[in-house]
Fold this protein.
Amino acid sequence: MAKSPSNNALRFMMLVFILLVSILDQGQGLLHYSIPEEMEYGSTVGNIAENLGISVRELSARKCRLVSADGRQYLEVNLETGVLFVSGRIDREQICAESTSCNLAFQIILENPLEMYSSEVEILDINDNSPSFPENAIVLEMAESIAPGSRFPLESALDPDVGTNAVNKYIISTNEHFGLEIHVRKGAITTAELLLEKSLDREQQATFQLVLTAVDGGNPPRSGTTQINISLLDINDNAPVFDNEVYIARLEENAPLGALVTKIKAVDLDQGTNAELKYSFVNVVPRKVRELFSLDPETGEIKVQEQLDFEDKNSYELDVQAVDNGLPAITGLSKVLINVIDVNDNAPEITVTSLSDKVPEDAAPGTVVALIGVTDRDFGANGQVQCHIPLELPFEIQSSLNNHYKVTTTRLLDRETTPIYNIPVIAWDSGTPPLSTNKTMQISVSDVNDNTPRFSQSSYAIYVMENNAPGASIFTLTAFDPDLDQNSYISYSFRRNLQDYLVPSYFSINSINGTIYALSSFDYENVKTFQIHVQARDAGVPPLSSSATVNVIILDQNDNAPVIVSPSAQSGSAAVEILPQSAAQGYLVTKIMATDADSGQNARLSYQMVQATDPTLFSVGRNSGEIRTTRNILELDETSQSLVVLVRDNGQPSLSSTTTILLSILGNVSEKISEPRDSYSNPGYFTDINLYLIVTFGSTSVLFLLTIIFLVALKCKQDVGVIQVDGCTVCCFRPRDSKEAFARSPTRGDPLSCSASGQTAPFPESYHYSVCLSPESSKSEFLFLKPYNPSLTQAQR
C-alpha cells in the first residue's frame, strides 16, 4: 500500500538510527539484521558481500540465492551490488501476530563450492495501527443505589502492535460520577474497569454517555474511542458477594476432561429473583481460556473442558462474575487462580462404615451421626490424609482412630428448615500437589413437636348479613403447622373467655376443618358485632396451640319500615292541623318527622305527597318532610283539606309508610273593615246600622276566640301539658309510636319536655305549639296554631 511522505521520512530516520547489520558471528555463521516493518520495496537491509567477506563478483558467479523455511520471500539480493533489499510488504502483525519478537529466518546458499549461511532479519514494530474497540458502544445498566467503589469491566481495545506501541492507557471523558481503574496483566496487557466514584440518583440523571479512549505508547501515540452508554434503573440494591475475593485452585496437568477445578459461590442479601444468581466469565477473559474451562452458570462449578499442558502454560487467571436476576441486574466480581502442577496420581478413598438414617432435630450438639474410614494407596506424605466438611453445615469431622473419623453435629438441627442434609466429606492427601476426593452422605432429620400452629393472620374480619339462615357456615380458618404426622394434626375450638360467654350460643366450629357456623339468625338492630377467639391445637406431646381473633360484623338489611313520629294522629286515623287563610306562598304548615330502625341507605328517608284534596295548594319537601303552601290561599278554596304523605326509605327493596293530615283553613275574621278616608270627615255617614254591625261582628269574634282557646287548652291538658308564656298558651306534644323516643308505652306521670321561660323538663323529644291572641296585628292572624321556639321568643323580646 502507498505510504504518505511523512511515513517515508519516519522510516528513513529509523533506518538511520537502527543498526542495520548486527555482529557477524563467525563461529556460528549467523547474519543478523534489524529493520522496521512496512519498509518500501527496494529498501536496503544490508550488504551480504561485505558481511560475508566475499567479492561482489562471487555472488553472481556462485549463484547466490536466498531460501526461507516457509517458502515466503520478503527479501532479495542484488547480485551486482551484494545489497540485501526488501522485495515484498513486511507486516509484522501479519507475520508474527501477537509475538513480542519477530524474526525472518533464511539461508544464504553459494555454489562452487557449496556453502550455506544462516541469517535472520528482526522485524521491528512501528506504531502503524490504532487501537480499536470490538463494538462502537458499550451498553451498561446499573442500579441507582449501587455503592461508590463498584467496578464494571470494560471491553479492552485491540491493537495489533506490540511493546510500547500497544495500548498502555485508557482515558474517560470528564464527568463527576465515574472514573477508570487500570490493570496491567501478564504479557503487558492493559485492561480498564469503570469505577463508580460518586453515588447515583436516577431521578436527577437517568442516563450517561461517556467516551472511552484507548491510547497506545507509540510516538506519536495513536488512539481509538468507543461510547459507554449507561442507564440507571431501580433498585435491586445488593450486589452478589463471593465468599472469597480470590479462589486458588491447583490442578494436575493430566486432569481428565470434565474434572472439577473449583466451585465458586456468591450470596446475595436480596430475596426472591433478586437473589437468584448466574455465574459467568467476565468479558476480559481471553477466548482461549474460555475454551479450556467451563463455568456452570447455576452451580458455579469450574471444570476442565480441554486438555491442559503444563509446558504450554502453568497458570491461569480467570475473572468471574455473579449476576443476580434483579432489574437491573447487579454483578459481583471475583478471581480464580488456577495453577497447573505435576502430579500425585492417587486420590484418597472414603468408606462410610456406619451411618444414622435419621437424627432427631433436637439431638444435642456432639451427637455422632456417621463413622467413616479414609485410605490412600500412596505412601509417605502422599498417603497422609486430612478430612473436611464445609463450615456452613451443622456438622464437623473428628479424628477417631488411625484413618478413621466420626461425623458429629455442631448445633441443634431444624427439620422444618432442612429435612435432609447432603454432607460432602472432602478428603485430601499431603502430596505435592495434594489430591482430594469427596463423598456425600445423606442424613434425614426426624420431627419433634417444636412448632406451634400458625394462622395466616392474627385477626380476621368477616361480614354476615342479618336474617341469615341458621346453621349455615360463615367462615373457615386454617392454621399451618410445619411439623409432621400427629405433630401437625390440628383441632379447632373456641377459646373460653369471660367476655366470650355468648359465643357458644350463637356460633359453633368444626374441630377438624375450622369452619364456623351461625347457630341462629342475627338481628342488626339488636347486635352489630361479635368477637370470637379461635384456638388451634396440635396433637403433639405436649400439645402446642395458638389463637386468632375473628371479628364478626353484622350487615344491615332493609327489614324495618319507616315510622312516622310527627305529626301524630289524635284519637283517630289522621292528624289535624290548622292554618290561617291569610297564609302566603311558602308558609310552613307542618313538618313530618319519621324514623327508621335500619342504618345507612336503608334509613335514608324521602317524602312524597301521594294524594291531596287540592294538589296545587300544598307541596312536601322530598328530604325535609316540610309541608308548605305553594300559593296564596283563596276564598274559593275548600276550608278542609286532606293530604296523604308517603315516607319511603332507600333500601333494596324499599319500605314505606303513609300518614294522613287533615288541614282546617280559618277565615280572616280579625281584619279591620277599611272605609274610605272621606267617610270620617262626614259625621253623618256613621249610622246606627253600622254600629250594630260592628258590635255583632266583634261579639262573634270574641266568642269564637274563647271557644278555640278552650278547645286547645283542653287538648293540651289531655295529651301533655300547657305552659303560659308571654300571653301565649304553649302546648308540649309527646311524639307517639317512636321506637327511639320510647323504650316502653308512656304512662301516667311521665315527665314532659318543654322549654318556656327557663323551664326545662327531661323528656328527650317534644314538639311545641302555641296559641296566641294578636289583637294588635293589622292582619288576620288573630287566632292560629304555630310552632313555638323559645330561642326565637327570647330574640324577639
